[in-house]
Structures are given as C-alpha cells and as structure tokens.
Amino acid sequence: MMLFMLLCSYVFIQSDPPQDYKQLREKMVTEQIEARGISHNATLQAMRQVERHLFVPFQYRRYAYDDRPVPIGFGQTVSQPYMVASMTQMLDLNKSDRVLEIGTGSGYQAAVLAEIVEHVYTIEIVKELGERSKRLLKQLNYNNIDLSIGDGYHGLTAAAPFDAIIVTAAPEKIPAPLIAQLKDEGKMIIPIGSTGETQTLKLLKKKKGKLVVQNLMPVRFVPFTRKNK
Ligand code: SAH
Predict the structure, then answer these.
(1) Rounded to the nearest whole angstrom, what is the distance from the C-alpha of residue 132 to the centroid of ligand 1?
(2) Residue 5: predicted pLDDT
(3) End-to-end CA distance of the chain
(4) 161 preceded by cis ω (within 30°)?
(5) Ligand 1 atom nearest 84 alpha carbon
(6) In the annotation, is 133 catalytic?
(7) In this structure, which residue's CA is closest to atom 4 in ligand 1?
(8) DSSP per residue over 136-194, as a string?
(9) What pLDDT is attached to residue 1?
C-alpha cells in the first residue's frame, strides 16, 4: 500500500501541471512577438506551432512561455522567444532553403526553422545536450533536421553551401569556414563579442563573394566554445 502511494505521488509530481500551453503560446506570440513588430508570417506560424515547453527541462516548464531566456542545463540557455523570432525573421527564409544552425542547445530554434524550411542542419558541441535534443526532435517527428555533435566553428562541409546560417552562441570573430559555406546571396545571423561585454547581433549578406555586414542590436548570448582549437 505504502509503495502504491509513493508510486502515485511520483506519477503526480512528474506529470504536467494543469496549464493550457496552447493558450500560453498564443499569448506569447501576440504580446511578445507581434506587439514588438515581428510580421513575417511563416515565423509567426512556426512560433505558434512549436511546443516550447517540451524543449526546456521539466522544472522550468512553467517559465517556458515567459519573456526571457530559460536554462536548459550544462550552463546553457534557450533564447527569449522574441530573440528566436527576430533572428528567424531576419533570415527571410523560403520553403526550399537549407539552413545551418550552430548551437543546437535545446533544439527549439532548430524546430522553429524546420517548420519553415525544407532542411535544417544543426551542430552542438556539448555531447549530452546534442544527444538529448536528437532524441526529442526524433520523438516530435522532425525528420528534416540533421543534428551533429562537434565544434560548429568548422560548419558542415559535406552539406554546404547553405542559403542561411544562424549562430546562437557568441564568438569573438565570425568563423571563416562559415562565411565560406554561405551561398552567394545567402544570409548569416550571428552575435559577436566576448562574454561579459555587450555583444552585437550582426546580419551578414554575401553579395558576389563580398560580405555586407549590418549591426542589428546589442545582445547577450552564451559564449561560443571551441574543442581541439
Ligand atoms: N539555439 C539553442 C540555443 C542554445 S544556447 C536553442 O534553441 O536552445 C547556445 C548553444 O551553443 C549551447 O548549447 C552551446 O553548447 C552551443 N555551442 C557553443 N559553442 C559551440 C560550438 N563551437 N559549436 C557548436 N555548438 C556550440
């Protein structure tokens, strides 16, 4: 009997609190994203679609739709919803695009991209995070996402060139291999700067082999780390 009660309370604690996540998501999109000027239809639709609470650890689920980044373990965070939407909109994606993301983390941004484009490649340097996100994305049937574990500095030569590249951790300089793997007319969005200092979100466009760089806004991202430099 005791065991049964213990088991019941365990199941109760582990199950979802009675929250209407769809409603929270709708509120997130209207109040945090549309209200701040995001109007790209496919982006808005993707933000309405992807169940953000499934991408954050159980104990943080109640904060999943709040206007802020949420911890995902290993000292990392999933960006604030507005930042995800804003970076996605900036890439001005088409259905047929192939996109590379550096810094899979929770897999949330990859899922948002995968709702919009044909194929998403994503790279995560923390093995445990990469493995966890790979399992989740598979469970959620995101068959158009290829996740690899490794140092995203090198990009993904085998699948290059890309229509768009999105970097969700901040390096001090733009990694040269990523520039090389961008298609002509392709776009890259990347936060640049060291930790502790204000970083700058930059939008790069490749035009006839040349880079046109636009500084967008001050941001704060987790550091871009390196393995076997
Ligand atoms: N886009 C993620 C954000 C995660 S935070 C999301 O939607 O959840 C940034 C991630 O970048 C972290 O998981 C961190 O481990 C990863 N990262 C940092 N440096 C990296 C590198 N050189 N290559 C690949 N991933 C890196």
Answers:
(1) 13
(2) 57
(3) 57
(4) yes
(5) 7
(6) no
(7) 105
(8) HHHHTT-TTEEEEES-GGG--GGG--EEEEEE-SB-SS--HHHHHTEEEEEEEEEEES-
(9) 56
Locus of tokens 């604030």: 80
Q: For residue 223, report the distance from its CA to the centre of ligand 1, in Å.
A: 8
pTM: 0.92
Q: Divide the 229 residues of the chain into consecutive groups of 10 and give the mean pLDDT of each group.
A: 55 59 97 98 98 97 96 96 98 97 98 98 98 98 98 98 98 97 98 90 95 96 84
Alpha-carbon dihedral sign for residues 26, 221, 216, 150: negative
- DSSP secondary-structure letter at 215? E
Q: Which atom of ligand 1 is nearest to the CA of 79?
A: 3
Ranges of each domain in the chain: 20-219
Closest CA to 99 of 119, 125, 115, 116: 119
CATH number of 20-219: 3.40.50.150
Give the model's pLDDT for residue 19: 74
pLDDT of residue 7: 54
Contact 184, 208 (CB under 8 A): yes
Residue of 9, 39, 79, 106 with catalytic role: 79
Residues touching ligand 1 (Cβ under 6 Å) are 72, 76-79, 102-103, 105-106, 108-109, 123-126, 129, 151-153, 168-169, 222, 224-226
